[in-house]
Write a structure and sequence with these properties.
Shape: globular
Number of domains: 1
Strand order of the largest sheet: 3-2-1-4-5-7-6
CATH class: Alpha Beta
CATH topology: Rossmann fold
CATH architecture: 3-Layer(aba) Sandwich
Radius of gyration: 18 Å
Helix content: 25-40%
Structural class: alpha/beta
Distance between the termini: 33 Å
Strand content: 15-25%
Low-confidence stretches: 1-15
Number of helices: 7
Length: about 250
């Protein structure tokens, strides 16, 4: 089933400025020795250098026709699938949670080869606040943006920590080229209503579709699977940056 949800009642807090920090803990359980090696030996070889932001496409080991960004990749299944399915695309995957970064690297790098194993040439990792990277990118630098099952920050006092926020939409729109897609998914009713409210009050993005089943071409994630097991209903938005594509 697809179609836009009915607009929710307007939030009194929607116009508050976003928080200085959008994420929570940087680390959960203690990292295992293998994960520590991955972060110290493999991660530096995959890290996206901020000084290359002005020419992001040149930061990859292969020529790429476009650069895409995933904000908050969690366990990395989605980013891994996107990079594998689109070898001519340079994907920057952003995540601050070290356990999630270690989880992705553990699938990409054979044990014992942390410092030497070949790495996906079209995938780079960013392990700081994604907004810092976005601020450094030039206008129209990105051909697609992903925000898959972000932390909903469900309490009203935490709404300022949500990536989808009226005060950040302009900067997101700036770095997306005209006609570029922003794919967004959430299983949290509070976040779903927040997204519907926020998107209903802006003109930078066209809401191309809103679906209650994962659209074709959207790789699954562990968070989607958990939501479905626990009886929550994800929603999937496809937004298009307004303007004339060149």
């Amino acid at each position: 089933m697809s179609g836009e949800a009915a607009p929710p009642a307007r939030s009194k807090k929607i116009d508050r400025k976003p928080a200085e920090r959008l994420y929570g803990r940087r680390r959960g359980h203690a990292l295992r020795p293998r994960q520590e090696r991955l972060l110290s030996e493999a991660l530096p070889r995959m890290a996206f250098p901020l000084e290359r932001a002005s020419e992001a496409a040149a930061a990859f080991a292969v020529p790429v026709r476009s650069v895409w960004l995933e904000v908050g990749f969690g366990g990395g299944e989605h980013a891994e699938a996107i990079a594998a399915a689109n070898p001519d695309i340079g994907l920057i995957a952003a995540e601050v949670f070290e356990n999630g970064v270690g989880s992705l690297l553990s699938r990409l790098v054979p044990e014992g080869e942390e410092a030497l194993a070949p790495l996906p040439p079209n995938l780079r990792l960013w392990t700081a606040d994604a907004r810092r990277l976005i601020a450094a990118l030039p206008d129209g630098a990105l051909g697609r943006l992903y925000l898959m099952f972000p932390d909903p920050w469900p309490k009203a006092r935490h709404a300022r920590r949500r990536f989808v926020h009226p005060a950040t939409l302009g900067e997101v729109a700036r770095v997306l080229s005209p006609g570029a897609e922003w794919r967004l998914a959430s299983d949290d009713p509070t976040y779903q209503n927040w997204v519907a409210e926020t998107l209903g009050a802006q003109a930078l993005f066209e809401i191309a579709s809103v679906a209650d089943a994962r659209p074709d071409g959207w790789p699954p994630t562990r968070y989607e699977a958990k939501a479905l097991r626990e009886g929550r209903r994800p929603r999937y938005w496809t937004l298009v940056r307004r303007g004339v594509a060149t």
